[in-house]
Amino acid sequence: MPNKKKQIRKITKTGRYTYYVTIPTDYIEELGWRLKQKVVVKKVGKRLIIEDWRE
User: Taking the domains of the chain in order of start, what are their residue ranges?
Assistant: First the structure.
């Protein structure tokens, strides 16, 4: 599990309407996710949840 400081990420803008946040490699490996894998982003209250598209 990454330390707390490593979990802090900045919101970055690419293009005119798209924003992104990077995900720590440790989390990607732990979840077994791959490059170009489809994910679903859900807004629940004031939180965003990122899930595997197939779940």
Answer: 4-52
